[in-house]
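for the writeup, i need someone to sanity check this before i put it in the appendix. the sequnce is what the collaborator sent (i think, or maybe the updated version? ugh). structure was predicted straight from it, no edits. if anything looks off just tell me and ill rerun, i have time this weekend
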Amino acid sequence: MPTASTRRTRHIGLSLGADICWPIAFEEILRNAKLELRIGKEVVDFACERVAIQPFELGAGCKYDVVVDRLTHWFTLQREWIKKAVLMDGLYVYNNPWSVQSYTKHSSYCAMIALGMPVPKTLMLPQKSYEPKDDLDYTLRAYARMFDLGEIGRSVGYPSFMKPYDGGGWQGVSRADDEAGLRDAYEHSDRYLMHVQKAVDGSDLFVRAIGIGPQVRIIKYVAENPLHERYTTERGFCSAADERTMVDTCLTINTFFGWDFNSCEALRRDGVFYPIDFANPCPDSQINSIHYHWPWYLTSNLKWAVFTAATGRAMPRNLDFTPYYAIAKQDIPYSEKLKGYARIARERLQADEFDAFCKKHLRPLEEAANAWYRSDRLMEAARRKVAHLFPAHEVDEFTERFVALVRQSVDDMEKESKS
C-alpha cells in the first residue's frame, strides 16, 4: 500500500457563470469515479470545487492545479485572477486568457487566412457611430475617408453577412441579399465595428467541430432552427476525409491560439469547407442546446481536466506562431499544409500521451459517467437548467426530451466503442 507521503490530491476548479447542469454532473461523476491513479511514484486523487468571485491578494498562492474556465471572456475580475495565477502560481487553465482577451473573430480570420485557410472574402468597415471622445471629431475630420458602400457590396458579393468583428451568439448579425439590404444593415449597426463577409451560397453542409484538448466531435448544425434543434443527432453524415479535414482545422485553430476548448463553424460547398466562425473559446455546454452531444462534451471535459491535473501539464505563458507560418510559406497544396499544422497541434496537445493515459487510467471515469447519465440525477440536473430557461408549462416536456437524447447518445457511444 502507498504511504501517505506518496499520495497527492490534484485540485480542479470550475470558474462558472450561468452554467447550471454540467457542473453538477462534472462534480458528481468525478467523485463517483473514486480515481486513484499511480503516476510515477505518486498515487494521485482529485478534488473539485467551484471558484468563488472575491477579492484576491496578488502574492497569495493558488490552490488549484487546473481551472476549467467558463467566465473570463466577459467577467474581468476572474480573468485577471486567472492571469495572476498562471503567471505566479503555475496554474493550468482552459483557455489562454490573454489569447481569449486579444484574439477576436477579426484576428482569428487574419491568422487563418495567412495560413491559407479558405475563409470567405471579408472586409472591415468603419463604424457607423462612435462613443464621444475628446479627440474624435478632429481625428475623423482629418483622416476619415468617404467610401461607397455599394461598391464594397459589389466587391464582396451577394449574398453577404454583416457581423460584429468580435461578436458572439449571432448578436448584430444580418444577411444582405442586395445593396439595399447592406445599406440598411450598416445604418442599424450603431457603434459595432463590422465585417462584411461573402456568404457561402450553395453550401450543402454546415458543421460545428468542437475541440476539447485533442478530442474533436463533428456535429451537423442547422443555424435557422430554434436553439434546441440546431445541433442535430445525425452521425456519419460526411466522409472520413471530410471529417479529418474538420478535425485538423479545429485542432489547428485551437493550438494556434492556445485554446483547449473551442468550436469551429464551417460550410461545405463543392467539397471545400469554408470556416466562417471559429473564435469561440467558451462553446455552449448546456443540455438544452447540445442535448444528444452533451455526454460527449462532459466526459471529454472530465478526461482532459484529469489528464492535465494528473500529469502536471504546463501552461504555456505565451504563444508560438512560428512553426505554423513556416509551413504556410512552403510551396505545397493547402491540404498538405493542413496536415502539417495538425501534426503540430497533436504534438502540442500530447495527443498520443493523452490517448495512452485514457486507456490506462480512465475507464472507471467513463463507467461512472455513463452510470450517472442513466441515473435520476441527470433528470434533476436537466430540470434545473430547463426551469431556468423555459416557461413552467414546458419544463416537463423539454426535460424529458433532453434526458432521452442524452441517454440515446450514451447507448450509441457504447455501441460504437464495441464495434
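The first strand starts at residue 7 and ends at 15. Residues 121-198 form a domain with the Dna Ligase; domain 1 fold (CATH 3.30.1490.20).
thx in advance!!
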